[in-house]
Amino acid sequence: MDEEIDTRKINNSFLRDHNYATEADIISTVEFNPTGELLATGDKGGRVVVFQREQESKNQPHRRGEYNVYSTFQSHEPEFDYLKSLEIEEKINKIRWLPQQNAAYFLLSTNDKTVKLWKVSERDKRPEGYNLKDEEGRIRDPTTITALRILLQPMDLMVEATPRRVFSNAHTYHINSISVNSDYETYMSTDDLRINLWNLEITNRSFNIVDIKPANMEMLTEVITAAEFQPSQCNTFVYSSSKGSIRLCDMRASALCDNHSKLFEEPEDPSNRSFFSEIISSISDVKFSHSGRYLMTRDYLTVKVWDLNMESKPLETYQVHDYLRSKLCSLYENDCIFDKFECVWNGSDSVIMTGSYNNFFRMFDRNTKRDVTLEASRENSKPRAILKPRKVCVGGKRRKDEISVDSLDFSKKILHSAWHPSENIIAVAATNNLYIFQDKVN
Amino acid sequence: MFPKGTKRKFSDSGDEPAAGGEDVNQPSSVAVRMLSSYSLQRQSLLDMSLIKLQLCHMLVEPNLCRSVLIANTVRQIQEEMTQDGTWQIMTQALSAANAAAQCSADRLVATEVLCRQTEATQGEQVLKPFPAVGSEGCPAEEEVVVEEEGEGGVTMSTVSPQAPTSYLPGTFGMDPCWEEENGEDEEEDEDSEECGSGSEEGDSDRLVEDSRTAEQVFGTFEIKNPAPSPDPALEELFSDVDASYYDLDTVLTGMQSAPKMGPYDLLESLSSHGPSPLSSSTSCRSDLNELDHIMEIIVGS
Known about the structure:
Chain A: GO terms for molecular function: protein phosphatase regulator activity. By secondary structure, chain A is mainly beta.
């Protein structure tokens, strides 16, 4: 009996408890680049896949702007921290694109501990010889050659990804966010307790700008869950916490921004109080609107839009899946209550989108106040078919197309999604599948 | 507040106090039942949370956000239970049961390991597990239970009635030393005498650690972890090491490879646990005195 237990423990130490092959394909982040031409996904296996939108061609109008694989590379490898005897997962937590400044594309990708800057560039010529021979292949007289040049020959287009910078050893805790500053020179990386500011060119030094680690770790009750720079003011950023508050900080105020300039927090509704109140108030994602005037936050059951000028309560609150409120205990039991859903704005900041369970995702139109639930699954939608709105039946009689709360599949969750910066194209990650939906074009 | 779909581990026990009661007291028995239902659910939530804190992945660092949220939930439940007096009664009862159980040879490794003395003065008391299976070890406890039911349970509202004081690993300050205990007990499982002595040795270590606050589970992140070692001999080697070293093995680091009493045992003890109401304070008095006596001896050394 003892031996069995020991063996089991030893085996668990060296092998993952899941089937490695399928786990590695789970998509863990999705992001469009600033023009929308490229779409990057990161997965649990540390790989990044970049899709490129096809140029519209008059010959094939129906293939308007489809996304095809452009480049695939292994961004992070699994590591082992020997000091702590702990594995460092290679899962890509976030990808953020840099604005394009030349022919190459740059993106930042991060796992729990290390941020890397990758350059994705095309190569359609290859070096082949020097200018030492003339057109007929005869060797030229050396005295006529004034400069040595490499001759380039055309070749098949190749896309290569090269790591240009590795920003490591700056985080004790797990990195949950990265955000590129509007000055295009700096970016910040955020872990559970600290936020560090980096210069994109310098990898051996970073500046700590937020530190909420208590002197005595026993007193820890709150962690940082996400952070983002304001899109137009390079001195302003926000960070969200596990207690449901968002802090806006101004880097001009002091070097260490532990004191916030603004605190966005909604007082708790006493009628809804339960043991799970704090857990469901924990903010899983925070995003500035493109205009920079509004802030969107996602907690377990709702999405909220805040006006930067009003700290006392959100401007708008949208219920994502309120029918789960009565199931919180079960969701706590199966750990679903800790799922971190992301939220996104559309290009004009008029529609917001976030994911739910059963491969459902929800869109809310801020102007018309209408909302829709859609499903990302192969069975329910053929390519180029219009998505049918879905509905969850809460109680009483279930109509034909509705699905009851108890039938929801909680293992199929849409945590990550992205919206094209200017068009109505969305990318939705459903476990290990990526769905791209576009507005119908007549 | 709690969904109807919640698993009720002790659904029968909720009816017991009312069954023996008078019809005249119908309204109060309903109230009692509701209260006990709430307490039951709260208790099962506490159990669940404590298990979650322990069952961390072996090799990868556990998610700090999740751990903080669960710990906050546990703290919240504990505060509420302290406020309505349930906490004190429960820990007293458990310590009494434990004192009795310590002499039993049939004790499970699980319960042995989690036995610890508590400092009555502190608000936060470390919980002790109610012996899940080794009921032969505490006949006194069982008798009390029977009596309690017979009386109709008028006092049940103050005591967490038929509370599933199942398995409450003392994770407040879930401490590290219980890993060492595990190692020793694993080897000495068959030998009852050594079990007792093993626990006493461990007691002094535990007392040192118990004087720290419950939130020290978070201290783990500050200190480097040792390599997980399933070898009990190695555990013994490190038994004299400074207490803080063991922080590494507390629940939030997830370095659970060492404990012989792994998650499997926890679940087993939970599921096999039958309804066992708390004994009233009177029956614990004598046990508590004995306990104090033992404490003095140990602290004195």
